[in-house]
What does this fold into?
Amino acid sequence: MEAEFAVAAKMIVLSLLVGGFLLFFSYLSSPHIEQWRNEFGPIFLHSNAHMLQLTITDIEFVKEFVVCKSIVLGKPSITSKVLGPLLGKGILSSNGAIWEHQRKIIAPELYLDKVKGMMNLIVDSTTSMLRTWENEIQSQGGIAEVRVDEKLRNLSADIISKACFHSNYHQGEEIFSKIRTLQKVLSKGMMGIEGLTRWFPTNENREIWKLEKEIESLIMKVVKQRSEASSEDDLLQMLLEGAKSSGGFNGISHRKFIVDNCKTIFFAGHETTALVTSWSLMLLALHPDWQARARAEVLEICGDKPPEADMLRSMKVLTMVIQEVLRLYPPAFFVAREVLETVTFKNIMIPKGVFLQLPIPFVHQDPDVWGSDAHKFNPERFANGVIKACKSPQAYMPFGAGSRICVGQHLAMIELKVILSLILSKFSFSLSPAYQHSPAYNVVTEPERGIILRIRRALS
It folds into this structure.
């Protein structure tokens, strides 16, 4: 079986004792994936000393992979080992019965009808942020230089804190701050070998352990306050009720169930929106024609009113822009799965234990699928929807694929439209000379040196 697998996928063996994990997770810091694909083809197998990894960019393989909802493909065990302090055994990293249980609790809270009820919250939080931008513009003589990615992270944290914790959202903001610090520390340590360095008492590990304890303590403090007060209709309440029936899943305690899922929701809930909004503003600043088109559409639909749910559906240009940004800058770099039982894709038998990784940017920017302008910003390709945007709609996966597709995609899209429409209605912007293009993989794809814009009031 192993021999058949090795023949089907051209083999490259790399014995990398240090640095394997980050190397494979980002061509942004290394061109190896692109080099190997050019040399060995669109499907290649490699080893980083402790696991076999199959990298997939072949579109026919991708089609089968994306539509597969079988439980034989699960989240890789390395995810919980390397990112355990951040994700624990929450919905992003777990498999089997515990994953199904968590999804049944969390997904209904993020259905489209439920998310529409968060519109006022999103509008209010965004409007509050934009007032600070107006003050900066006034104090700087009509044009302000703003590092927008930091502002948008704080905005997303505010929104997810209120959506999850309602009356406890101030504690939620403190939790977010520590999770962000934990994310940065973990990103630094991803060059080490999983399983060999995680338990060494290094300075980084000590900081990780300290942050884990502080985050857990803060979350449980909120839980205690909630248990002593009247219940609220929010995601935290659903987690508390779901925790009561979570016992028996691989020994996961009620406490761990709550803590791990709160951490996961905070991390995933703020990163996607903040990053995609940041990249959207960067690309609109770089393409003033599309910025003008999107602004004109927003003003025509909304006038001087804040956006409402029905208005968002009419924003075709803005939707095209967001879809194109998600194509070029997907928040997650990989769709990653571990083969839990032997499976066959495209007549290739893949044994249990193999790690599958699908580098999303390679698929999203494949000229054979998206056309000769695949590497260019062209929202017009989405004028007739995703189905007509490329040769195969399965090649578009900004929110993941299969049964593990992101449960928060509806919330993310509504947030993106509300935030961008409010910004466009009030401001025009261009890239600052201080901006340095620096996409980097730090658990998610983010602008390492920030996104700095020159912002002024839009002419009405």
About this structure: The first strand starts at residue 10 and ends at 11. Residues 2-457 form a domain with the Cytochrome p450 fold (CATH 1.10.630.10).
